[in-house]
Structure formats: structure tokens, C-alpha cells
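Please, why this fold?
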Amino acid sequence: MSIINTNIPDFKATAFHNGQFIDLTQKNFQGKWSVLVFYPADFTFVCPTELEDLADHYETFKKMGVEIYGVSTDTHFAHKAWHDTSDA
């Protein structure tokens, strides 16, 4: 089932981006392409592999007008801790 051009229900979440905590809502997704990458948790096997690969190619996605969002059940504090301790 395709979800392209599907409306996202209203939501609000706190994220860690560029060294700070920011609020995200469905409005962040309007009018641009977005890729949501779901993973189990920070500090798991997926972090140094898939997320590192996305970080390596992030500027390429940005040049194409695409924003990437990593989504897990962790808090924004856990995301910051992983960011601060990860070599990537």
C-alpha cells in the first residue's frame, strides 16, 4: 500500500537535531519529500550501520530536497546521548 501524498495526522514530538532539541509536527513534512527510518533503539546494532550510512549520504539527500528522520521509541535525551558518544 502506497502512502505517497497521504496526509499525516496531527502530532508533536521532540527531536534532537544539529545539537539542540526541537519540536516536530506534521507541518515539518508538508511540501517536501521526507524519508522516515524506523529503528529499534539507540545503542543497538542498527546505529553504527544503517544510521551511519544515512549520515554519510545526508548531504546528497539534502541536495535532492529530501529530509531524513530517524524514528525510534527512545527519548530525545537518548538520541543526544547516542549522538554525543558515536564516532559517526
The domain at 35-88 is CATH 3.40.30.10 (Glutaredoxin). Residues 41 and 74 are 6 Å apart (CA to CA).
